């Protein structure tokens, strides 16, 4: 099966920078897969996102999206396949109302009005923002704004959605809300998700995690495999999930803890078993 995203030996260097932003980056994302790319600030995550839909042009390497090689003659067809939700939703708003904003991308693509109205309604229902259709986007909360930004993308029915630090400006409740929404959309639409983030809890929801460090892929694995490198992640300027922090604290107090990664449910089960044997 053709991968949704295939990147081969991608290199990018900003004109005034001392070091390349991306160095020989290669990876694939399968159709319907959720892959998270994590790394410290300045590791090249957002640069990579912009190279995937032609906002930046790589110095060398190949980007294939849905079987099309990214080039000047294919960039618009590829952008129809890929939707990007950026860090600050305010930068994406152009409509006077929520409904107008969701409709904007459809108008640009020449979608007939009757179909456009249906798509806008369906998209707002999907993100649970139908009651806010006539509101001004500026008057929404941070989480609501991000929901509208996602609605504007899914109304265009892309095959792939890229979340470029899309939850970083939200509070913990807002982040949880957006991640739950993406999980629901993926379950109902078979959406391919590429989540570019430094939020470890967001990355934990992915099928696979790619660790980017100084523009290079350091390692790839399941969330459990990646988070098992707890101290190394800290050394790279990344956080670790709460269960890993709790394991470290308990180990320091002399409690025998497993070396493998445990999510919250797994850690609770382990501690319950440990308690019952004491």
Label this structure with key terms.
278 residues, alpha/beta, 2 domains, four-stranded antiparallel beta sheet, 39% helix, globular
Please provide a written account of the structure.
There is one protein chain. The strands form two sheets. Strands 6-7-8-3-9-10 form a six-stranded mixed sheet, sandwiched between helices. Strands 2-1-4-5 form a four-stranded antiparallel sheet, covered by helices on one side. The termini are far apart. The chain has helices at 45-52, 75-79, 98-108, 113-126, 142-154, 172-189, 200-203, 223-227, 230-235, 242-252, 264-276, and strands at residues 5-12, 22-29, 34-38, 60-65, 68-69, 82-85, 160-164, 192-197, 208-213, 216-221. The mean pLDDT is 86. Helix content is 39%, strand content 20%. The chain is of the alpha/beta class. α3 packs parallel to α5 and α5 (142-154) runs parallel beside α6 (172-189). The chain folds into two domains: 31-59 and 75-238, Rossmann fold (3-Layer(aba) Sandwich), CATH 3.40.50; 241-278, no CATH class. It has eleven helices and ten strands.
Mean pLDDT: 86
Please state roughly what percent of the residues sit in beta strands, choosing from under 5%, 5-15%, 15-25%, 25-35%, 35-45% or over 45%: 15-25%
Strand order of the largest sheet: 6-7-8-3-9-10
CATH classification class of the largest domain: Alpha Beta
Helix content: 25-40%
Write the CATH fold name of the largest domain.
Rossmann fold
Which residues form runs of ≥5 with pLDDT under 50?
none
Task: Tell the overall outline.
Answer: globular
Radius of gyration: 20 Å
Q: With helices defined by DSSP (H or I, 4 residues minimum), what is the helix count?
A: 11
Largest sheet: 6 strands, mixed
Question: Distance N terminus to C terminus?
Answer: 51 Å
CATH superfamily of the largest domain: P-loop containing nucleotide triphosphate hydrolases
SS-derived structural category:
alpha/beta
Architecture per CATH nomenclature, i.e. the level-2 architecture of the largest domain? 3-Layer(aba) Sandwich
**Count of separate structural domains:** 2
Order of helices and strands: EEEHEEHEHHHEHEHEEHHHH
């Amino acid at each position: 099966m053709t991968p949704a995203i295939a990147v081969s030996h991608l290199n990018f260097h900003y004109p005034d920078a001392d070091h390349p932003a991306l160095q020989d980056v290669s990876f694939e994302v399968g159709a319907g897969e959720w892959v998270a790319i994590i790394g410290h600030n300045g590791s090249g995550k957002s640069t990579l996102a912009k190279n995937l839909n032609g906002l930046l042009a790589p110095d060398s390497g190949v980007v294939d999206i849905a079987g099309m090689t990214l080039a000047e003659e294919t960039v618009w067809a590829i952008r129809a396949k890929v939707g990007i939700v950026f860090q600050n939703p305010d930068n994406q708003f152009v409509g006077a109302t929520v409904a107008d904003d969701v409709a904007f991308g459809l108008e640009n693509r020449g979608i007939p009005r009757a179909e456009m109205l249906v798509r806008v309604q369906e998209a707002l229902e999907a993100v649970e923002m139908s009651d806010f259709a006539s509101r001004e986007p500026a008057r929404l909360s941070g989480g609501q704004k991000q929901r509208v930004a996602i609605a504007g993308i899914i109304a265009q029915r892309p095959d792939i959605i890229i979340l470029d630090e899309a939850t970083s400006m939200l509070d913990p409740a807002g982040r949880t809300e957006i991640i739950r929404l993406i999980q629901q959309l993926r379950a109902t639409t078979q959406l391919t998700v590429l989540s570019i983030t430094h939020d470890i809890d967001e990355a934990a929801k992915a099928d696979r995690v790619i660790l980017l460090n100084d523009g290079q892929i350091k390692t790839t694995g399941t969330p459990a495999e990646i988070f098992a490198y707890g101290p190394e992640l800290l050394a790279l300027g990344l956080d670790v999930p709460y269960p890993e922090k709790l394991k470290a604290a308990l180990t320091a107090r002399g409690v025998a803890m497993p070396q493998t990664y445990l999510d919250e449910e797994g850690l609770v089960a382990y501690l319950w078993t440990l308690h019952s044997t004491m």
